[in-house]
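Appendix B. Chain record.
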Amino acid sequence: MAAIKKITPPGSIVNGPPTPPLTDTKPAARIASILRVFRDCQNGAPPRSLRTSYKLNSSEYEDLLHQLKHDELLGGFVADKVRYDYDPIQSRFTLRMPTTLHDTFISRLVTEIEKTLERLANKEVEAQPFIKGIRPVSGVLNFQIGDDDQQQNIRHEPDIRFQHKDAAWPGVVIEVAHSQNRKSLVGLADNYILGSYGGIGVVIGLDLDYKRSREASISVWRLKNSTNDDGEVEGEVEQVVDSQVTSPSTRCKSFSDTEQLFRNAEGNHLLSPSSSLNLSLKDFAIEEVTHGVPDLPIVIDSRTLCKLLSEAENWDNKTMTMQGAKPPPFKRKWRPQTPPEQLTFSDEERFVEEERRVRRKSEKLDKPYNEEGVFAKDSSQNSSEK
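Structure tokens predicted for this chain:
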């Protein structure tokens, strides 16, 4: 998982206002704004918001990819270091900025699931061949939607995905969200499950509300098939466990206080069975691959989840405060910097002019924004209401 935290201290990502995305601007200005953010990341100054979203239609997105393809240095950096998603259904481009807490929790959770699978393989001999074929995989997933003559690609980079070697899609996808972007999990679940025609059978959302309280919760989405009046099989995504981390007064009455939270506001784990991460061995691949595999439970209980999260929080705090033993300072002799590719005069001139043009348009066209990023559609609606 490529994380921009490699080029800037994670603490600087969390604190401070986010870099404002352009909202209701001309397409060329929006693309130039995203390119400018990419260059800021390349120079070690990424936006401080955990997620920044832009309204970008399919043709604009293709133009953005075209720009990156023709700028080898920037395009290579973005492909290697930057995490972003694109949803043509919502016309939404989202830049994702992982933190130490986010990535450490993910890493520990992956290790814990692997250990659970290994213990199960040692105990259940019949399931050993199938379990040995399961691996955690990282990278980008692309889903094709639309007709053959008007195909579009949904692009997502999951936080965690487990895939069997004989399956085309990962059976299990896990996304770690924060309080400001938990609503995006619903759209992600639809894209993952429907985009893969059920190849991705279950999507787990782990919501860490660490800024407001210490509450943390689990959401689960699965594929639900039914037959319509024409006898056709239809698939939709069903939310099995609802993530409600609101106050008791606004909590959905159909759920008790412990049915979705795995950690309460005081930081204590909850004992309800639904507070655990519950999977089945058959969740890790489609039925064609799992035929004959015993339907065994894979459980990471709430106590373990809380332990992993607390450890990640401690590492996050240590990283930001630089706690621990440090070596004595000495006079540092830096190696002279030699760029991998010298820019020609025309390249430099073009970059300088583009930056000037973007700044002028930004000052003229930018609209107010909030921490979550505002889309052009929302901004234009607000303007019309005024």
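Further analysis of this model is presented in Appendix C.
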